[in-house]
Amino acid sequence: MKWGTRVTAVAAATIVGGAGFSGAAEAAGPPVYSKYTVSGTTHIAKPGADLKLGPGQFDMYTQIGSYTFYGTITLPPVKVTKVVPGIGAVSGTVTLGPGSAGGSVFGGFSGSATWPVKLSDVRVNGVPYDVGASCGTAQPVTTELVADGFVAGQGGRLTSTYTLGEFANCGSATPVLNTAVAGPGNTLALDLTAG
Q1: Average pLDDT of the residues in 127-152
Q2: Which alpha helices (DSSP H) does the chain contain, by range?
Q3: Left, alpha or beta for 32 (phi > 0: left; psi -120 to 50: alpha)?
Q4: What DSSP state is assigned to residue 184?
Q5: d(Cα 14, Cα 20) in Å, to the nearest integer?
Q6: Sign of the dihedral defined by the CA atoms of residues 179, 180, 182, 186, in that order
Q7: Contact 56, 38 (CB under 8 A)
Q8: Is the pLDDT of residue 131 over 70?
Q9: Measuring CA to CA, how many Å separate 53 from each of 48, 117, 127, 142, 148?
Q10: Residue 172 phi/psi, 5° resolution?
Q11: Which segment of 26-40, 102-116, 125-139, 161-175 scores lowest on mean pLDDT?
Q12: Looking at residues 93-116, what average pLDDT do you find?
């Protein structure tokens, strides 16, 4: 059953049965699954780096009645290269997520996603630099996601300003990453397209 048909059926049952808000939620049954293609960008403030994200996928489950959702945002790893004064070209692969998302789509979209952030395949002027297998932020990053024009079943743009926490387990590169990368004022924009 399509999203719009399901919502209409629930609304009709509520009116005919004289049920309140909780009755509508009970009549809705299991969450409705939606799949969105995800693409976008994130800007890392300290190094002034822009990363192109996606295409990935958002598997979203929405409870009709309360219109709360949960799901997983999966994005492919992204390669980034930045010229650092006094050092040269520094490159690496950033893996963001999978992100665990949840929130509300009642009258719009508001929610958050929690992302593990990993860094691998670091190279300085083309020479591999060992950061180990567990290099990443010490704690997952949380992004508060908002969208004014989000339409359930169709999509929209999600935006966030977030803090990138301190890195850990990156060997001798740990203090460099914390000085040059970790910090507030980073931005994220994700475009969701149903399909």
Answers
A1: 91
A2: 3-17, 21-28, 174-180
A3: beta
A4: E
A5: 7
A6: positive
A7: yes
A8: yes
A9: 16, 13, 25, 17, 21
A10: -70, -10
A11: 26-40
A12: 93
Assigned token pair, 146:
């908002």
- This prediction has a pTM of 0.80
Instruction: List pLDDT tens digits, range 148-175.
Output: 788 888 999 999 999 999 999 999 889 8
Q: What count of other Cβ atoms lies within 10 Å of the Cβ of residue 190?
A: 27
CA pair distance 109, 68, nearest whole angstrom: 10
Q: Give φ, ψ of 176 to 5 degrees.
A: -65, -45
Tokens read off for 140: 């997952």
Sequence letter at residue 7: V
Contact 4, 154 (CB under 8 A): no
Query: Which band of pLDDT confidence, cut at 50, 70 and 90, is reported for residue 28?
Result: low
Which structure tokens are listed for 77?
């790893």
> What values do phi and psi take at 67, rounded to 5?
55, 35
Segment of 21-30, 64-73, 169-178 carrying the highest mean pLDDT: 64-73
Q: How far is Cα 151 from Cα 43, in angstroms, rounded to an integer?
A: 25
